[in-house]
Amino acid sequence: MGLAGINADTLAGNLTWSDRLRLPYPLLSDPERVAADAFGGLMRLGIGGWTIELFRRRTILAGRDGMIAAIWDKVHVGGHAAQVLAAARALEGA
User: Fold this and answer.
1) Strand intervals (E) in the chain
2) What is the pLDDT of residues 26-38, one digit of tens each?
3) Rounded percentage of the chain residues whose pLDDT exceeds 90
4) CA-to-CA distance for 86 and 94, rounded, in angstroms?
5) DSSP 8-state symbol, 65
6) How far apart are CA 58 and CA 47, in angstroms?
7) How far is the CA of 61 from the CAs of 10, 19, 45, 76, 90, in angstroms?
8) Which end of the chain has the smaller Cβ count within 10 Å, N or C?
9) 3-class SS of residue 84
10) 26 vs 11, 29, 74, CA distance in Å?
11) Beta strand pairing status for 27-29 and 59-62?
């Protein structure tokens, strides 16, 4: 089982954040927002005549078979890691 984060920052920016935060997982760079769009992770807001795209905080859990097992759309940082870990352990035990 693996874990990764994804955002629109550059590879260099992600390396800086990863080092600064001492993340135990890689941050993947998606500046063209292709993966974010494919996984429904973009939020498009219309402001006047402009449309802006923002990454939504979202967690997707996939099984070893590559099938999506769970999606969390409303992620609140406190306690979220424990929820995901419990779901991943249950998935492994199934």
Assistant:
1) 5-7, 27-29, 42-47, 50-55, 59-62, 68-72
2) 889 999 989 888 8
3) 33
4) 12
5) T
6) 23
7) 24, 24, 26, 16, 12
8) C
9) helix
10) 10, 10, 22
11) unpaired
- Residue 49 tokens, joined: 């005549």
* pLDDT band at residue 43 under the 50/70/90 scheme: confident
Under 8 Å between Cβ of 68 and 59: no
Residue with tokens 């199934």: 94
Task: Give the number of other CB atoms < 10 A from CB of residue 23.
Answer: 14
Torsions phi, psi for 23 (to 5 deg): -70, 135
Q: Where are the domains of the chain?
A: 1-55, 57-94
Nearest C-alpha neighbor of 60 from the set 51, 70, 47, 45: 70
Identify the pLDDT of residue 40.
84
Question: How many residues in the chain?
Answer: 94
Q: Residue 40: what residue type? A: G
